[in-house]
Design a protein that fits this description.
Strand content: 15-25%
Order of helices and strands: EHEHEHEEEEHH
Distance between the termini: 19 Å
Helix content: 25-40%
């Protein structure tokens, strides 16, 4: 079977993430397919950094599908917690933690911490690998500065969005419209870099 050089597997089965990536890469001749199309199970994230985990996921998806792959790894870094929860953001309160569980734990460990010490940022690393043994994967990184609120606000978004205050907008991330978030976010910044790199690669 002949494979289009710009047919790419996304190392995720999340439909929302797939849609977001497809919108960013639209008009570039890229056909992006989720790893579920190939019955690829999620790989264990054993890396010690966002970069390592993104590479693990991209390599696994590329190896199983035979296609180039895109993967992302993202999370929240809080200065007062020395960068935690970081790569453990999705399981900060435990392996089966919900978003609410993680938010409650974050508020608990930051109880009594002054506003000046509640600075935080979302980080996103995107990796593009041409094949599983690609020695020079494309790595793009985006960050979004903010601070952690004392209580959740807003109903939009997911994860730590209700606790992440965006000073330029004067509200929590979960109070932003999808259009505004997708223009300002860490993932949007990383995806813009990746789109530029793929225009050259493809």
């Amino acid at each position: 079977m002949k494979i289009n050089a710009c047919e790419i597997v996304l190392a995720s089965s999340n439909p929302g993430k797939l849609k977001e990536f497809q919108q960013m890469l639209s008009g570039m001749g890229v056909s992006l397919r989720p790893q579920s199309d190939f019955n690829i199970a999620a790989v264990e994230e054993t890396g010690l950094s966002f970069v390592e985990n993104a590479i693990l996921k991209a390599r696994h998806a590329s190896k199983q599908s035979g296609l180039p792959a895109i993967a992302d790894d993202s999370g929240l870094e809080v200065d007062a917690l020395a960068g935690r929860p970081g790569i453990y953001s999705a399981r900060f309160a435990g392996s089966d933690a919900t978003d609410s569980d993680n938010n409650r734990k974050l508020l608990s460990v930051l109880r009594g911490v002054s506003p000046e010490e509640r600075k935080a940022r979302f980080q996103c690393v995107l990796v593009y690998m041409r094949h599983p043994e690609d020695p020079t994967p494309v790595i793009c990184q985006g960050s979004w500065e903010g601070e952690i609120l004392n209580a959740p606000k807003g109903e939009q978004g997911f994860g730590y969005d209700p606790l992440f205050y965006v000073s330029t907008e004067g509200c929590a991330c979960a109070e932003l419209s999808a259009d505004v978030k997708n223009r300002l976010s860490h993932r949007a910044k990383a995806m813009a870099q990746l789109a530029d790199r793929l225009r050259v690669t493809c």
